[in-house]
Design goal:
- This protein has about 130 residues and is an all-alpha fold.
- It folds into two domains: about 10-75, no CATH class; about 80-110, no CATH class.
- It is about 55% helix and about 0% strand.
- It has six helices and no strands.
- It has helices at about 20-25, 35-45, 55-75, 85-95, 100-110, 120.
- The longest helix has 21 residues, at about 55-75.
């Protein structure tokens, strides 16, 4: 069984060549949660820096991504997709609200807000600056 790496990695700290990346974390099929966590940690450090990656880093990142994808397809159960109404109902339930409560609080906010005044919304005229 593998163990988790100790310190979080940053893109700047990662090697730019493939052999050094492999010495840091050898890409292999993921067999357990520790392998998965270690692979995701390295991939997360690379993610978002695609424009700055060397060719070796790009190849390494693509391989890690594929290994993660294979493992997730077999072992990770993602929650069911919910409709917008289901998500809203979940949030209302989590905050002990119901439709009537949220409508009443919306009405209170609407009546207590400062009314919009178009005169206050205008910006002062722009004065040309001579060069």
């Amino acid at each position: 069984m593998s163990t988790k790496t100790k310190a979080p990695l940053s893109f700047a700290a990662l090697p730019r060549d493939y052999p050094a990346l492999c010495r840091l974390h050898l890409p292999r099929p993921i067999h357990d949660k520790a392998d998965y966590d270690n692979t995701v940690e390295i991939a997360d450090a690379l993610a978002g820096f695609e424009d700055a990656m060397s060719t070796d880093q790009t190849d390494y990142f693509d391989l890690l991504y594929n290994l993660i994808e294979v493992y997730e397809e077999e072992h990770v159960k993602w929650p069911k997709k919910r409709t917008a109404l289901q998500r809203l109902q979940y949030l209302l339930d989590e905050h002990n609200l119901n439709g009537a409560t949220s409508r009443a609080s919306s009405a209170r906010r609407a009546t207590s807000a400062t009314p919009f005044c178009a005169a206050n919304a205008r910006s002062p005229p722009i004065t040309p600056v001579s060069v």
